[in-house]
Design brief:
- The protein contains 1 helix and 23 strands.
- The protein is mainly beta.
- It has a single domain, classed as Beta Barrel (Porin).
- A 14-stranded antiparallel barrel has the order 4-6-7-8-9-10-11-14-15-18-19-20-21-23. It has a two-stranded antiparallel sheet with strand order 2-3.
- Its main location: membrane.
- It is a multi-pass membrane protein.
- Belongs to the OmpP1/FadL family.
Amino acid sequence: MHHKNKFQTTTLAVACSSALLMASSGAQASGFAIPELSIAGTATSNALVANHEVLGAIPYNPAAMSFHEGSSVSLGTNLVLPDLSVDTGSGSVDSEGNELVAVPAISAHATLNEEWSLGISVNAPFGLETDWETDTYSDQYPLGSFMPTQTKLEIVAFSPSASYKLNDQAALAIGVDYYWMREVLFNSVLNDGGTYPGFNLEGDGQGVGFNLGGLLVVDSWSFGLSYHSSSKIKAEGTLDDDVGVLPSTLSDEVTATLELPWRLQVGARYEATEKLAIEFDYTRTGWNKFDTLEVKNEQFGSNVFTSVNDFDNASAYRLGVTYDFTKATQLRIGYTYDETPQKDDYFSPRVPDADRQLYSLGVGHTIDDGWTFDVAYMYVDFDKRTINSSKAAVAGEELNGTTAVNGTYDSSVHLFGLGVTKTFM
């Protein structure tokens, strides 16, 4: 039996210009994280937390502001092309979502005096969209159970920060992370053997966290640290119910709380020569915060929707190399090994994750009048992941990690980055 289905994951995009903001969603890092915050970061596989020379490091570590005079505005776009597929065991499922998506990244900073600098970063550190045809798992989900169709998280982060320069070698930074969840969708259909009625759950919400940064430069070495706290986003929404999940006498209003993980990135950079520098970064993400997602109705006696994920904390290991080909042109390459936090026991087709490797390269070129242009390319190679669970799928119960989601999942992503930065002295 062969199914031609749609399994679409696109990347969360944020563009902010003249008070216009737009977002669409997806993920390239473990879980549903998106670490590409600048075009220079894309080129070095996001190994920039200890870099005090490249303006593209500021979104990764706001303490880097203290090492740049004047002010700057950076605008960049990553063009993302996914290639996704899954073999369910009873037939292949091909992606129909291989469309090019633009993912902008924005940052700016201003030097106030010899000690203080202010900056802001607008990005999308988290995002997800999976979109399945109605009958993708119809032969694996038991009758009477709900099959996931579309899942979406669109989360935009506004991060204003301040950096204080302790001396010529050290700086500290502190800031606020304001998370705006533009949209959250959890849609499903009932496996009734053919007609597939369903429910659509849609909402939005906000959350607040904080961030810290530090940067130390000692001769040819520099060391950086960046920390973003966890944050709870309370979403409020409505349930469009064709199945009768909620009695018609009850309100269609629902609530859910999504807890975003904390993020810690530390790194060391070594200038081997006047032209060549090498940086190694380690990222740890507190994914254990993403445990059980519950959608509730105050009048209903039980949860409307429950998803048990039970993620583990995960690590990423990043290597970035820069080479000053000329005074105006810098070459960049990078590599990352990124672990998945998702266990086989709770594998979900809503977040079909796997370990992955990131390979990247790029160029930055500066011309007169403070203009710098950046280009980058990244290839994200996901490990093939085969789920072969023996845990029976039972109608009416949580189906993550059961025979209902068995299959071999395979995907990759191409990113093409273009950016421009203007500095003012």
